[in-house]
Structures are given as C-alpha cells and as structure tokens.
Amino acid sequence: MSRRIVPGCFSRMVWKKHFFKESCCCCGSPEAEIQNEELEKRGQGRKRKKKNETKRVIVSNLRCGSKKWKENPNRRYGSNKIKTTKYTLLTFLPKNIYEQFHRFANVYFVFIALLNFVPVVNAFQPEVSLIPICVIMAITAVKDAWEDFRRYKLDKEINHMGCYIYSREERAYVERSWKDVRVGDFVQLQCNETIPADILLLHSSDQSGICHLETANLDGETNLKQRRVVRGLPGQNALFEPEFFQSTITCEMPNNDLNKFQGYMEQPNHERVGFNIESLLLRGCTIRNTEVAVGIVIYAGHETKAMLNNNGPRYKRSRIERRMNGDIFLCVGLLTVMCLVGAVGHGIWTGSFSEHPPYDVPDEHGNFLSPVLAGFYTFLTMIILLQTLIPISLYVSIELVKLGQVFLIHNDIDLYDEAADLPIQCRALNITEDLGQIQYIFSDKTGTLTENKMVFRRCTVDGIEFSHQENARRLETHKELDLDDEDFAKPQHFTLPPPNFGRAALAQQGPPGALRRCQSARARVQGHHRSRSLGRRDSSQSQVAFSSTIEKDVTPDSRLLRRVREAALQTESLSPFIPTRTSTAFIDFFLALAICNTVLVSTATEPRQRVTIPPPIKPSGITLEKIHQIFQRLKLASLSQSFSSSQTSSELGASLGARGPEEPLPALGGSDSGDRGDSGDSTDMGPASLEEVLRSVSSSSLPPALCYEAESPDEAALVHAARAYGLSLVSRTPEQVTVRLPQGTLLTFHILHTLGFDSIRKRMSVVVRHPLTKEIVVYTKGADSVMMELLEDSAGAEKRMKRIKEKTQKHLDLYARDGLRTLCIAKKVLSEDDFQKWANFRREAEAAIDNREELLMETAQHLETKLTLLGATGIEDRLQDGVPDTIVALREAGIQIWVLTGDKQETAVNIAYSCKLLDQRDTVFTINTENKETCESLLDLTLEEVRKSDECDEPRRKIFGVIPTSPPAPEAPSAEFGLVIDGKTLSLIFQGGLEEKLVSLARRCRSVLCCRCTPLQKGMVVRLLRGQLRVMTLAIGDGANDVSMIQAADVGIGISGQEGMQAVMASDFAISRFKHLKKLLLVHGHWCYSRLAKMVIYFFYKNVSYVNLLFWYQFFCGFSGSTMIDYWQMIFFNLFFTSVPPILFGVLDKDVSAETLLGLPELYRNGQNSEIYNLSTFIITMLDAFYQSLICFFVPYLVYKDSDIDVFSFGNPINTISLLTILLHQALEMKTWTLSQLVAMMFSLGFYLVFSLIYNAVCLLCNPPTNPYWILERQLSEPTFYLLCLLTPVTALLPRFFISALRGTFGTSLILKAQQIDKLPKGQQDLEIQKLRSRKGATSGASPAPNDDLDQSIGHLCVSPFLQPAAAAVPQGDTEGQGLSSSGVNLPGKGTPEEGYCFYNRWAEEESAATDSSAGPLAPSRGTAPGQDSGQVPKDREPWSSFGSHRRSVSAVTL
To answer: Annotated catalytic, 444?
Structure first.
C-alpha cells in the first residue's frame, strides 16, 4: 500500500525521529538526487557521498540506454558474471608461488637451496639442491590448478545459463546469458525457472501479486516460500510495461543476511513505497506455481546474497598439525645443535694442525681462513647438508592422506541415508583426525536428537484436557512404510480426507489415482514451453516437507470431536443447546489452528497447483429441520455416553482435576466427562446418528485431495490436527483464507494482516474479519513462556478465565513432563476504530527505512496484548532411531555430552531420559534463578556438595580396585550427577563473571542440559568450555539457530534435516542422522587419528634416522660437510624411495577393526588422550632413530674398517641398509596388510635397486671428483653386502620388536587386547568383547545402587531457588488428578525404577515472598511444614530435603 508523507500528526513525528530524511514532502525528491550527483561530479559532494555509502540507489537501465551508459548510476555496480577461480593463465604461476610461500616450510627450503649457490658454503651441486623444493611445489601447483580448473568449468556453465531480459531496442524480452544481466535490468521469469540474480518483484501473473519460491538450492528447504509484489505499486493487475517504470529504488548495501532486506521505492510524484525481504527473489531459487514474474535486478553476481553466503570449504588447523608445528621447531633446534657440533668440530680439527694442510688453499692475497670463520662456514654447510632433518614432503603427504581419508569416509555405506538419499559430506578437508580426539559434544535437541516430525499428541481447550488416547496408541504401533513409487497409488493412503468418516468410507471416497504421499511443487519441466534454466540441481520431483503419514494421520479424541461438531453446528445457529461462550472457544481454537499459519494449499496431483479458490460444494439434500430433529434426539439419547472404557485412570484424574469443585460442567444435557463414569444408559444410537448427519451432509461435497505445504513442522501438525476435527483448510490467498466446517459449510475469512513468527516474539498472529459475526479477530499462537504474560490482566479478568488459565498451566506442565512441545492459542476481538489506528501505525512502520525493525516490533507488541486464552497443544517430536544407543556408546568412549536447546526445561529433561543422556539413578541439579547473588550461592553450594561426594567415592574406588587402563580425558565427569540450567541463569553467569564456577561444576557432572538457550548463548557456552578446559569440542545441530555453536566448536557437524541447510553450510561435516555420529567418531575418527599420528611420527623418524648417517660421517671427515652417499640418491631417498608407503599407511591402515571399535567404545580414549602422538612418543621415536642410525652406520664401518674401498663404496651399503631398515620399521608398525601396501613397499625397494643400477652404470662424471660408476653392480656380487643387508636391519629393529613383543605378551592396554580379539574367529570375537564389557562393568561399578553415604552427604543440599508455581507445588488432589505421583517425598533407593531423579529444591529467602504471592492457590503456605501437602518426611532425614521424581512429582519446599 502506498503512503504519502503529509505534514503534521504521527507520520511527521515518525519520519523526523526514525528515518534518515527530514519530514517534508519534497525531501528525497529526484531533484535533490540530481543535485547530489552534480556535486559529486564537481568534487564538492565527497562528504555526502561517504555519508550515503550505506544505501544503494538503482534506476531503470531503460532510461539511459547504451548512449547514456556513462550517466547511469548503475554502472558502478558489478555484473552478474561470477568468477570463483583464483587464477588465470597469466597469473597462475606467480600467484600460486606467492601463496605457497605463505607456508614457512617452503620458505625455509628455498632459503637453503639459494644458500647452496654460495660457493664458500655449498655442500653439493647448486642446481641439484633445487630439485626437492621444486618437485614439492610443482605437485602442490598441479593440485591447485586442477581444483581451479573445475571451478572454472562450473562458473562457465552457470554464466551461460539463459534468462529473458527486456530490450529497449526490440521492445520485448529477449534471451540472454546470466553473465549479461546487470543491475537495473528487467527480468522475466517463468514457472520452474531458476532466478539469475537478486530481483525485486514488480509483477506477478497471480492476481494477488504472489510469487512462490523453492529455496532448496539456497538453504535446502523443499517447502515453498511466498514472495509478494511491492506493496502499493500502482497498476498491479494490468500488464507490466518496463518502459513506463520511472521510480527510483533505494535499498541497503549488499550483505549476506538471507532473512533481512529493506528499502523504498520513490515514484515520480515523490511518493515513497517501502519494501522488505518478502518482495526480494534470491538468486539460485526456483519459481514455482507462478506462470510469469517480472522484477528489476537489485544485486548481481558476487553481490547477491547467495554468493555472499558461499564461503566454500572450511579450512582449520587440526590438533595434530598444531602439535606437529611444535615438533618441527624441536627439529630445528636439533638441527642447530648438530650444525654447531659440526662447526665447533671443524674449528677444533683445523686448529689442531701445526701447519696448514695441502688441501687448505689460501685466497688471492695469501691469507688463510681463521678457525672461527671456517667454523661459521661449516655451520652453513652443515645446514645445507642436514636440511632434510625437517621433513619437506610431510605437508604434501598429509594433504594427500587426508584426501584419501575423506574419500573413504564419504564412501562408507553405513553413513549413507537411503531414505533421504544423502551421503555424508566432508566440507572441511583437513581436520579428519580431530574426529578421533573429541572430548565434549554440544548437541541441539529438536531435529538433532529428535525426528523433527511433529505429531499432534494432545490438547487442552477451555481448561478441559483431551488426552487423545487412541491417537497415542496409534503412534505406539505406527510404523511408517517406505514404499516404492508404484505402491503410492493405493487409495487408502491418499492425503488426509475429512476424519469424520470411517476408515472404510475413507478408502471408498478417495480418487483411484490419488497419491499416498504428496509430491513436491516441482512440476515437471518437460511440459513447459520454455525448458531452460533448470538450475544446477536436479529438478526431479520430491516429497512435500512435513507430510509423512505419521504427521498427517491424527486419530481424534471422541469427546473433543463431539464437542467440536456440536459447536460447529451451533455456530450456524443450527443447535441452541450449547452455551455460546463454550462453543465459541472450541470453534475458535481449531479455527486458530487452521488459519494462524502460512501454510499453502495445493492439489495432490501432478503438476501441482496452488488452491486459491474454494472448491464448489453440491447441495447435500438434507434440510436444517432434519438436522435439528436429529440433534434433539442426540441430546436425549446419546450425548451422555461413557468414555471410561477407553481412558486410563490417570486420564480420568486429569480431567477431574482440571475442573474446580464450584464449576459446572459445560456439557450437553448436563452430561460430560465429569460424570461419564456413572452413565450407564448410553446407547449406540448417538454416534450412529451423528455419523449419519455428517456423512449425509458431506458425502456429496468432499473437497479434492489437498497437500499442505508448511514452513515448519509445527504448522503442518496443527493444520492436520484441525483437519482431523473437521475444520479443513481448503484454500489460501494473501487476502483471504477458507475453512471447511465439519458439516461442509465453507467460511471465508478476509485476512487483514499477518504478523509472522520470529525468534524474539516467539509467536505469530493473524488478523481476520469473521464472515458470520463481522468482527475483527486476532488469532495468536506462540510459546507458553511468552503467551501467558500477554493474557488479559488477572485483576480485570473474570473468575472463569482465571480458572481456565490455571488449569491450562497445569496441563502445559503435564505436557512438558511428558516431553511434548507446547503452544498456547489465544484470541482477541478488536473494534473498528482500534484496528484502524493500529493499521495506520503498522503502515508507518512498514514504510520506514531506519529503525524499521524496532517499529515493526513495537506495532506487533501493541497488538498482541490482553489476549483471551483458548487452549494449548502438545506436539510430540519423536526421538530418532539409534539415538539412545549412540549416546550410550559415546559416553562409554569418554565423551561428555551437553544438550543446548531452546525448548522448555521439562521437555528437555524428559527427552534426556528417553535418549539415555540422563540415567534414572542420576542426581540431577536444577538451577533456575533470576538473581545474581542467588545464582552464585547456588553454584557454590552445589559445587561443594559434588566435591564432597567425589571425596567420598575415592576410597570406595580404591577398595574395588578400579585402575583405568589409560588416563581419562581431563577430569572425567562423575557418573552420578546431571545439571539442568536455563537461559536466564546462563545470562546471569556470563554477565556476572561466574563462568569458572559453572565450568568447575559442569566438568564434574555426567550430563548438562541448557534449556531456553538463545543461539548466541549456545555459541558462548561452546567457547567457554573450549577456552577454559582446552578440550576438543564438537557441536552438532540442524537449524539456523545452531550455526553459532557449530562455528565456535573445533568440529562442526550439521544435520541435513527438515530445517534447511543453514547448519550444513556452516559445518565441517554433514550427516543426515544423529546415529551416524557413532561410527563417524568411534570408527573413522579413531582410524584417522591413529593413521595420521603414526604417519607423522614415522616421517620424523625416517628423516632423523637418515640424516644422522651423514652426521656420524662428519666425525671421520674433519667435519668438512662432505658425504659418503651420492647426492642424487640422497634427493630421491625422500622424494621417491620412501614416499609412497607412508601415504598408503596413513590412508589404509586399521589398527583395530570397525566391529571391535563399535563393540568397545572405550578404545576411543586412545585418541582423546593423544596416546599415539605426544611429546613423550616423539622423544622416544627420536631416540630410536638415533639408535638405528648408529647401527646402520657403524656396523658397515666396522666391517669395512682398514679396507681400501672408496667413499661411495662405503656409503652405498649404508644407504641400502638404511632403506631396508626404514621400510621394515614401517612394516612393524602396520596392523593391516593390503595388497596395495605390499606392492608399494616392494615397488619402493625395487625402484631403488633399478635406479641405482642404471645410475651407477651410466653415470661416469655425474659427481666430480668422485665417481659412482659400477659400484652397486660390484657389491651385488659380494657376500659381505648381502650379510650386511640381512644382519644390520635386524640388529637395528631388534629393540623395537622386543618391546612390542613384551607389550603384546604382558601389556594390559585395551588397544592390544582389541588387536588380539581381531585375530580370533567371528564367534569368539563377540564372546571376548562381551567378557571385556562385563568385566569392565563389574570392576568400574557402573550404575551402582543408590549410595547411602552419598545421600547423607548431600541430604542438606539446596539447589533450585524457585520453580514455576504450577510445577513447583501441586496439592495432593491436583497431583492425583493429573496422574502424578501422590507422594511428593521418596526415600532414596526405595522409589520405583522410574523415580530416579532426585530434585533438591530451595526457594531463596529474598525471592520466596514474591514466589508465594504469585503462586496463587497452587503454592503451599509458608507455615506449612515441608512435605505436609503430599506426604510425610521421615524423621531421620533433614527436614528440608525432598527426594522425588522429576518426571512424576515435584515437591516445593521453602526454607
């Protein structure tokens, strides 16, 4: 809607206060803009230009044309051509070399190579020294070039996709490539076409100005999104003519926020029209269910929001790499020491001569080098000679190994989700080994631990609870079948029809070709006349989001179904029996479920079409008089039927407890559930008659099969629930929504405004005009934590509404304890004047540019007040398959698991018990407070008691002899405590500097649940633990609210579920099910860490062992820097002879099989504690390398001592022996032999022999003055050479082999035991694993019986300052009525198995008064002794300690 600024009143005040322009009608006129441009041209408007850099001004390119392009303000904006490549043919070489020099190792080796060109210090031929670094950099360059070429091909494919742009010359839309699109162009889009740029929607073929998008390419969400033509744009119903568009568009600068966009359009008459994200079509999305859409390009190319969000793969440094960098510095120190020894030795040796030796040649002036200077030159020469002490090929080898590991992980069939057709995605290529060192996991709940398939479970309306027992039984026995496409056409499985018919009738009414599952709105493109721009993704059909059978089928509660039907008939004045207020509440409740959403209605047949016109209904052939007579008969005969046979005692109690003794039952004929237990005269006539009525009314007017496309699973569940009770949503447009009542009547509500859901308000509202009463009604649904505060003030509310609120709160607490997600439903009736005032206020806010979000929030809060409560819903989010087993296995692996969720505390706690995050024997501390001092005192008290219990447990552990086989992760948490904390308390902790106390407490707890967390708090918690404890963290989530913690953790894992792909795009790895985390960490994580750690250690060993051979020789050559090995063989030794086996070892070796790793999760601790690669193992390896080099050098030295062999004849056996020793050393480290590894080792040895034979045969003057000619050929004919090659490696490797044998024989390491188990037959493997597990459980005292000493030590603990009044103190009568435990105090160790949650509760003195006053009739009086209201406290216990089940009873005790 357009808006003109006029002087005076509210509009002038708002514009002057909040907007960036002055409040006059001529401000922001085109003349002012032209004047600004002229000032800029003259150089006088620079300050103003800088000031306005936050805004982008766009005009139509048709104004300027090609001749006036220089005057077009759009010329400064980038084109739509994208370029994700790094290099061109000209820049590749210099740019790639520059990037490789960012790695310190490359700079080091280039410096060494250049140093070798200095004649005074060179060790061998200068040109040869360049070969190693050139080969390494060349391999890296080839890899980078290949990756960049793949990006180039993809860019080219995208840039040449087609679209239609309006041409001024041809006065029509002409086809152009995407790369030719520019800001200011008009683009025409058609159905199933991919959007080439960010486009402002100006016209839609839909009469309502609506365009539908599928954003799967952008965020993975398959449900359709609505976009609307800019509000207030004139001539929307007429054909859009781009040449007549003369408006100027001002919007924000390009940014990567997909959910926010704002700007305004200034028309030639100076009128401004505001717009936001609902009018922006984003690049990469696909047009659906809209024939034609036209818009103007706002952002193009790399400035589009999709490209700004495309950050590509994530690169992190793993823990092993950080450890490796430190060890490289140790090697640099070792190299320095060895070079100093050589320099000092050379100086001493030179100074020992009384006369200068004949080889010491003076300079041109006859001067000799001083010993000091000679020693310095020798130092530099030794650096060149011993440079390979730093492993030059290590970095390249690590990259290749990680690529191989990623390939194996990606192709693991166990990590493939067949239902979703999704394999695991490895987005970060260089942290695979971190998967094997995780110590803390931070997980979201909804969609991560649960299915995110929301199932309507139960509800409360008008203070009456309906438990839906039949629906509960259906969910227990339901098994969703994943049928093939040919099975989808069964009539009995088509989309949900009106539920007021029997199942048999249901199958008969369905069309023969209806589908079991609604297919997506992705219509087949082949039938379209313009088959182009299908996008990068496959446009094949997909299922509708949130439309599985288990989500759609809802079995209604018989009592509630009868009430709704009666109320629906009374709504049309067909039955005068029901009180108006009660009937209105029931109808309004389900009307709110049906229309307070953004659900799109479409047909189930392909191609799918959006339903905007209600289906016609035929006359039913039954008169109103007949219906009236039937309902009179129903009143007398059938409406007092008994429901006790289908309900449990707890449900009966809940319904009785939901009513006060003074409240009459609002029933037909004075009969309802309150007295259903003693109504014994019910007949079958009532239900049959009612069924007859509704079948006769509706059988001839069935709506077509419909699909509901919702933006969230909660919305879909509520709409399907409303349909189950006969209030079916049949059509929706932006202006109206039509609902079909149970008797077939269609009610069309005119939508006056919609306030969408956001995470701040936590609610949604829709303003409609009721078609019958003509009232303006606001329907609101939202989280109970905010909705209860928005209800009409209790002081002014009538008593009945107070009771409804109290009972609804009880039911909400009951739902939360059952693990259900709760939503409150409310309404409000507005007068015409109030609505007009609010609508004007809203229009002002929508037209705003600056502070627009604040103004919109203010208007929403102004409307959503003084609401009338209708009821509440409980939606079940089912636990994913395999979650409990996965969590148990991860716990056994020594990983501490935190759950960070935005759900209610009770819901999160129950889910934690269901998934075995909390055990029934755990003592769970709950800390909820809004006071900093109270929070600090509670943390201190809880921490003190936990420490006491740890001290009490230590002697007991020693008595039972529990000695861990390996040191646990940093202070492994006790298995007896859990911590539950809410978002408000977390805010106090972060603001009050109490982080260290929280960390100290949490690290001693078995599990931690943070409830009601904001996305920001999730990230803060992860950063806190990661920084304070220096532990390896992993965060896993599936939604946009989890991005913060995913990015804050060392390893981020996204779940590609039903909440889109935001979490996946921010993650390092992406999986489709939480259960995949088990194998990803316990198997692949262990393997990746073990392989890479051993490979890095092996590289250090290999280089140190080989370089030391040259170092030992310096003691026999006067530390002159000469070598006994030919330099070509020295270079090839690391590059080729010993390079391939370590890489294959790092990719393929398996120290333990996957089955054993999954059977013994404790093996994961090997990586957690860095047992393979740490400082001690590094030092031991270096000592072993020194020992082996001594053997390999001095055994040949002793054999050839006093002989007349030349230098190379002495060095060649040493080189061969060293190669054999190094390869056999790796063979000892290998735990799994494969054909490729065997071939690689044989190839390395064979390549060495072949190369040496050829090189010695053809090289006559390759290394003057020495000559390697025919050396190896002669030695191969000598027995001494073979004897040396046999005995020397055995002697060198004997200590390592001996120690390994001792460890295998007498060692108690769990890894060694697992390796021994792997050698057994399959049946014996399982038995041995079970024995180990049972032995471990017996010795560790896992899950002990309740500890009396522990109970006494924490009997005086006071943890929670206060609870919600309704959940904190429940009188005995209400407790029984809700199915809760009647005993509020349970002795430790004597409760039922499900009453293991010990809840210690104290109200802080400074807050108890406020709590008591707000608790109403539910709170105990302050004079009541603890436990009086629900049980007796034993005399031998502390009077303020209460033990009870958090799931069954919560007892509030006041100190």
So the answer is: yes
